[in-house]
Specification:
The chain has ten helices and six strands. It is α/β, with parallel strands linked by helices. A six-stranded mixed sheet has the order 3-2-1-4-6-5, sandwiched between helices. The longest helix is centred in the middle third of the chain and has 44 residues. The chain starts with 6 loop residues before the first helix and ends with a helix.
């Protein structure tokens, strides 16, 4: 990973998104401008509408940041879902600024006008967007079908990126993260029983996550399956695993699956003792 934010890809990704959704971006910019104006005009605003507008603005900016960081059309879908609400808030804030009250005619007219334009444009873009998602899902299905053949009770170290993952554990882990603190705490014991040997590794911050006890690598002979989302992530995952194990242990890694389309791979990893450790032990026994 090049860091939390790579400027060489962030700006081109936003430009690519803008080219595909020009009208949406224009509406978003107008919405943000009107929201800022309403924030400073205390006598020409509705506080409840303004607070909702600020919340939606934060959500939209977060989605744009995520798409800019790693371009995926599906990450932008929630923003499109919010479009009718954005137009409604834009028209409502605008009516309070102009008329000091809610103007139903202005709100309805602006909503109908914007929604018809965007609907017409999205209808033209829909085939290419769904094709992109379909190709990505089809590529992951090859990996998904293979991992179903692995022993159910085996230990699994699952590398994860923002680009999705064929493991059910990935979906459950990210669903819990988005659900909030209380649901995550509520279901953690159950998920720990369902997936006691599953450990997710986030490549962007070098951290391991699980619902049960952390993975303990403290003796030779332990075997586990390692899923790597990209070829370049294999060494990173193994290097971070080394920090959790004694210095006299090492890995014996064998690749058992490779997806040519997206470079997903599965490896079987066996913990072994380092050769120099065995030599040193034999030397000490000989001296005695």
């Amino acid at each position: 990973e090049k860091g939390f934010l790579d400027s060489t890809t962030f700006i081109p990704n936003i430009q690519k998104l803008y080219q595909a959704n020009k009208v949406f971006f224009i509406i978003i910019i107008l919405f943000l401008i009107i929201t800022v104006i309403a924030f400073f005009l205390k006598k020409r605003r509705n506080l409840k509408v303004l607070l909702v507008s600020l919340g939606v603005s934060l959500i939209i900016l977060s989605i744009l940041f995520m798409v800019g960081r790693q371009f995926e059309y599906r990450y932008f879908i929630p923003a499109l879902y919010l479009f009718p609400l954005i137009v409604f808030l834009l028209a409502t804030n605008l009516s309070y600024i102009i008329f000091k009250k809610k103007n139903i005619l202005l709100i309805n007219s602006l909503m109908i006008f914007c929604i018809l334009i965007v609907f017409n444009m999205q209808l033209k873009k829909l085939p290419s967007k769904t094709r992109h998602i379909s190709i990505s899902v089809a590529q992951k299905m090859e990996t998904f079908n293979f991992i179903q053949t692995l022993p159910k009770d085996s230990i699994k170290v699952i590398g994860s990126r923002y680009s999705g993952n064929p493991y059910k554990e990935y979906a459950m882990m990210f669903t819990g993260a988005y659900a909030g603190k209380y649901p995550n705490k509520l279901y953690k014991p159950l998920l720990g029983k369902l997936y006691p040997n599953s450990y997710l590794y986030h490549v962007w911050d070098h951290t391991f996550h699980q619902w049960g006890e952390p993975l303990k690598i403290n003796k030779a002979g332990l075997k586990f399956y390692l899923y790597s989302p990209r070829t370049e992530n294999i060494d990173q995952i193994l290097n971070d695993l080394k920090h959790t194990m004694p210095e006299n242990l090492d890995f014996n890694t064998n690749q058992i699956f490779f997806n040519q389309e997206n470079t997903n791979s599965v490896h079987i990893v066996e913990i072994i003792e380092k050769e120099d450790s065995n030599s040193e032990l034999n030397s000490n026994q000989t001296d005695k």
